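Methods — Computational structure assignment.
A single polypeptide chain was analysed. Its primary sequence is given first, followed by the predicted tertiary structure written as structure tokens.
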Amino acid sequence: MVAAKEALAAVRFFLLSLLLLPLAKPASEVAVFNDAGERRVMIITGAGGEEEYTSLFAEWGEDLAKAFDGNAAEMVHITNKPEDNSARKTVESTLKKWTEKPGGEIWIILVGHGTFDGKAAKFNLVGNDVSDADFKHWLKPHRGPLVFINASSCSAPFIRSLSGPNRVVATATKSGYEQNFCRFGGYMAAALGQAEADFDKDGAVSVLEAFLIASRKAAEFYRENDRLVSENALLDDNGDGMGTPADWFRGVRTQKKAKGKSSADGKLSRLVFPVIPPTEKDVPEPLRKKRLATEAKIETMRSLKKTLDAETYYRDLEKLFLELAAINGEIETAQQE
């Protein structure tokens, strides 16, 4: 009987190792997010068309720019003022410069209107518009951490175009055919400074938490005003290009299984912070990378809870938490030196 139990435990350990292998393999290549010294941020405020939207988008863009003050090494804020009619050239030239350092952290946030003709999705700028294919081309050399949020109508195709390893991509819609004005961007901008958006109470609002609270606020607007929902946001951070809606999450973890071999979205974005906690800003890069890899393993383990017996699950989860505690101890020591 004892031998049988030991054999069963060995088999479970082997299977668990296989499940963690995809995560363990890239651990040495894991991108380092939350490094203010390496972060470049671009806030793009699109053309409003009507004065009401022009002013609203400008306000959202200003709110986002303020949130990143002190949380980036460089920030480019493209406005929707009439004289800013060379916005597209500014975006292209800036990204060309930023991608010369392919491992740096890049954030791009778009607030405004979008269009979709069945083939190409575009974001409306003052002057010439910019498409998902344009951003895909301009960001092709980039191998480092990327957060790309398109809070415009018709934005869903941007997920498939820009999804990839070490990338967090969010859109205001689940389809290119959701063409009405979207409120998601305003709620996203506001969420960065809302204590109520910190679902896991770790003292900071992650990209995932901001996405979830913005999606919730948008849904509440349509429900309270008895209007047909015309925007359904998606978030992708597992590189499969599919995206996950907010109603798949309970707290900060998905409650539904992704299709095929894809892991669930949310594991990376819940560890990425627009407003970086003060305690994070002086963490040495090697320890930041080491901790991120362990945190990712913990998230993978949690996703396996229903497939493992309780003893195996809690034993191996405890090992990972002890590993994480040891890393946090190293970080604390490094910060005191």
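Note: Residues 1-28 have pLDDT under 50 and may be disordered.
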